[in-house]
Amino acid sequence: MTNRTVLVLLDPAGEVRSSILELLTIGRALGRVEAVTLESPSVEALAQLGAHGVETVHQAELPADLRGDARHLSGVVAATLAAAVRRTDADVVLAPSTFAAKEAVALAGQALGAGVVIDAAGVSEDEQGRIVGTKRVFAGSWDTTSVVTTDVALLTVRANTVVPKPADAAVATEVEGFAVSVDAPLPTVTQRVPVVRDAARPTLEEAATVIAGGRGTGGDFGPVEDLADALGAAVGASRDAVFEGWFDRYVGQTGVTVAPRLYIGAGISGAPHHRGGMQASQVIVAVNSDPEAPIFEICDFAVVGDLADVLPQAAEVIRAHKAAR
Ligand SMILES: Cc1cc2nc3c(=O)[nH]c(=O)nc-3n(C[C@H](O)[C@H](O)[C@H](O)COP(=O)(O)OP(=O)(O)OC[C@H]3O[C@@H](n4cnc5c(N)ncnc54)[C@H](O)[C@@H]3O)c2cc1C
Predict the structure, then answer these.
(1) 271 close to ligand 1 (CB < 6 Angstrom)
(2) What is the model's pLDDT at position 1?
(3) What is this structure's pTM?
(4) CA of 136 to the centre of ligand 1 (A)
(5) What is the gyration radius of the CA atoms in the chain, in angstroms?
(6) Angle of CA points 212, 289, 286, to nearest 5°
(7) Fewer beta carbons below 10 Å: N end or C end of the chain?
(8) Which pLDDT score, from 0 to 100, does residue 188 have?
């Protein structure tokens, strides 16, 4: 470990999600990890941060007119990140690969004159100590390695890149305020409507396991949702299934890009537009009644069969296996 300072963006601060714990785990391999936030962390969040080795959380003190919904604007988050880097002399900034964080990191990189890697699926250092981000691009057809040659490196990191691990020893976490001023012109927030997600399931973007249903479901997502609940997985769909009105969110190049540890496609043919959004998954299982379905070309495990038979059997075995543990 070097004497680098690694800043992790907490986004949002109220809860420390698994993707943030992954960033802390990656950060500890690169240097001393600190956190930056725009909101007051909860007691639970501070305990989790302490268990993951974060001694200091830098909390932005924003001008009064930016303390409401405006604090979510990417310009405000970017100004906070840039100010936090200057204050802590940080060498590396790690943020989750959400759309909002990606925009903020790009703006902060511009303000700092620093190298930016978006959507990294791996972060390491080369023999010269420079930060290296790897990622899969062009619909999963190329793996790229980017070496950051500036003093400061900013990266957004995809969920499920590493398994989060607590630090060897927990530490006490202190919150330190720091003033942030925003010089860039900002849009006015007139209304903010938070998306209410199904709290019982992980979010599609960050889930370690995703099961997606396609036109092969014939509109019955029951077996897909039941298997998802047996696995603790998020549920997605193909675009055609969403356009049929059978589900609300689809995976793919024009939908949500996912890279879970396990992706199960049920009744999905594997069209290029769909593959572009899931091909970077670590293990791909496909269930399809057509042995010639294109998704079988890219999957690790192929199950030829009717999903209405296969998925309930899988859910039953998984539940029995979990109950026996
Ligand atoms: C500009 C553009 C952007 C697009 N973006 C996206 C995108 O982001 N994401 C996306 O998903 N699509 C996208 N599409 C659509 C994409 O091209 C495909 O049309 C779509 O992915 C097909 O959905 P599907 O696999 O569910 O349906 P189909 O291609 O009809 O496949 C259904 C599959 O189900 C199988 N099946 C049928 N019955 C059963 C059963 N009982 N059990 C098991 N298997 C069964 C069939 O063998 C078949 O392989 C886009 C298209 C365009 C033009």
Answers:
(1) yes
(2) 55
(3) 0.84
(4) 23
(5) 21
(6) 40
(7) C
(8) 87
* Angle between helical axes of 222-231 and 307-324 (0-180°, round to 10): 20
**Quick one: tokens of 302?**
């192929």
Q: Which of 221, 274, 292 to mutate to test the pocket of ligand 1 (most atoms within 8 A of CB)?
A: 274
Determine the distance separating the centroid of ligand 1 and the alpha carbon of 315, expressed in angstroms: 23
pLDDT at 289: 98
3-state helix, strand, coil in the chain (%, to 5): 30, 25, 45
Place of tokens 């268990």: 51
Domains and their CATH numbers in the chain? 5-179 (3.40.50.620), 209-324 (3.40.50.1220)
**What backbone phi and psi angles, to 5 degrees, belong to 232?**
70, 35
Which residue's C-alpha comes closest to atom 2 of ligand 1?
A: 273
Q: Which residues is 288 bridged to in the sheet?
A: 304
Report which secondary-structure segment, H or E, holds 308: helix 307-324
Please give the distance, rounded to the nearest whole angstrom, from the Cα atom of residue 239 to the centre of ligand 1: 7
Cα 255 to middle of ligand 1, angstroms? 13
> Is the ipTM above a cut-off of 0.85?
yes
* Amino acid letter for position 323: A
pLDDT reading at 140 higher than 90:
no
Q: What mean pLDDT comes out for the span 104-118?
A: 98
257 lines ligand 1 (CB under 6 A): no
CA separation, residue 251 to residues 37, 97, 112, 197 (Å):
30, 16, 34, 16
Q: What is the average per-residue pLDDT within 119-123? A: 94
Contact 259, 162 (CB under 8 A): no
Residue with tokens 């998704």: 295
SS3 169: coil
Joined tokens for residue 80: 């906070």
Average pLDDT of the residues in 247-253 = 94
Say if residues 233 and 227 touch (Cβ distance below 8 Å): yes
127-137 confidence digits (pLDDT tens): 999 999 999 88
Q: What is the pLDDT of residue 57?
A: 97
